Amino acid sequence: MSAIKVLKYQVPGTSEIYCHLTVPDFGALPPTTKRRGTIVLHLTNLVQGDACPMGSVVYSVPTGKPKDPVVQTYIFNQEATIEFAARVAQVLTKRLELPVIVSASVYGDALGTTAEIAGILRFVQKSLEASE
Question: Which Gene3D superfamilies does the record cross-reference, listed alphabetically (predicted)?
């Protein structure tokens, strides 16, 4: 028994980065079940109709040891966005201790400030808390 929630969000204080988040609905699981599942996050700063390359996709899993680096696999590597996708995936995996798939089609000035990544992390954490 499991379910998912799909949420869309614009990160405040950023240059229009939009998030599409799919999280496990932990409330649908029996109370004895440990929180598990994979978080899927797509980030873009493009609007419908804009033509662009696919972006990068990174799969990241925790090692189980807080000080160890996460294990990452680049599923699709677009040079312009891979660093941003990998950084977001690493931060989310370390903080949430859950596997994460991050897809990033973020181009131009929107790439990679610490404030943007912090805003994305806050959104994902609040979404997970709401689903428990």
Answer: 3.30.230.100
Any idea which residue has 């990174």 for tokens?
58
Residue 52, both tokens: 């662009």
Output helix, strand, coil percentages for the chain, rounded to the nearest 5.
30, 30, 40
Tell me how long the chain is: 132
Closest to 81 (Cα-Cα) out of 56, 116, 51: 56
98-126 pLDDT per residue, tens: 899 999 987 766 565 677 788 888 888 88
Question: Which domains can be identified in the chain, with CATH numbers?
Answer: 4-130 (3.30.230.100)
> Two tokens at 72?
């990452």
